[in-house]
Specification:
By secondary structure, this protein is mostly helical. It has two domains: about 10-15 and about 25-95, Alpha Horseshoe (Serine Threonine Protein Phosphatase 5, Tetratricopeptide repeat), CATH 1.25.40.10; about 95-140, no CATH class. About 75% of the residues lie in helices and about 0% in strands. The protein has helices spanning about 1-15, 30-40, 45-60, 65-75, 80-90, 95-110, 115-125, 130-135. Helix 5 (about 80-90) packs antiparallel against helix 6. The protein is elongated, with a radius of gyration of 17 Å.
Length: about 140
């Protein structure tokens, strides 16, 4: 089954301009992102990583690609890489509470409690209700 997806992904990359050529590459970061989401929706997040990486290569300021690649790494239990991608998403859009809350969750799993609570507090102050609920359940203020 994995072989099928590797072949399919290779075909997608060739058809969509993922391979280098002398012709102008018209595949956009958004195109790669949409293709990655198809893999995620189909229950194959690992296959989405390369496409999300291509989206980021096309547009290094693509918040959604970093954030969702972080989610994929989280699903695959690659917490360090998930935290790194959430940090990059935060650097691009420091006003988006979801990346702080997600990084907080990953940091908590990695036993980085103080950093996790700091992220949760930042998300809670931004109005993230899940972070607010979490902190309240721990008896912590934001």
């Amino acid at each position: 089954m994995r072989y099928f997806f590797a072949v399919f992904l290779t075909c997608v990359l060739v058809i969509c301009g993922g391979c280098s050529s002398d012709e102008e590459n018209t595949t956009t970061a958004r195109d790669y992102y949409r293709q990655a989401y198809q893999f995620i929706d189909a229950g194959h997040p690992r296959e989405a990583i390369d496409l999300l990486s291509l989206a980021i290569k096309k547009d290094p300021n693509y918040y959604e690609a970093y954030y969702n690649r972080g989610v994929v790494f989280y699903l695959l239990k690659d917490y360090r890489r998930a935290a790194d991608d959430f940090s990059k998403a935060i650097a691009i859009d420091p006003k988006n509470s979801s990346a702080y809350a997600s990084r907080g969750e990953v940091r908590e799993i990695m036993k980085e409690s103080e950093k996790a609570y700091s992220d949760y507090r930042t998300a809670a102050r931004m109005g993230n209700s899940e972070a607010q609920k979490y902190l309240a359940s721990k008896g912590l203020s934001w």
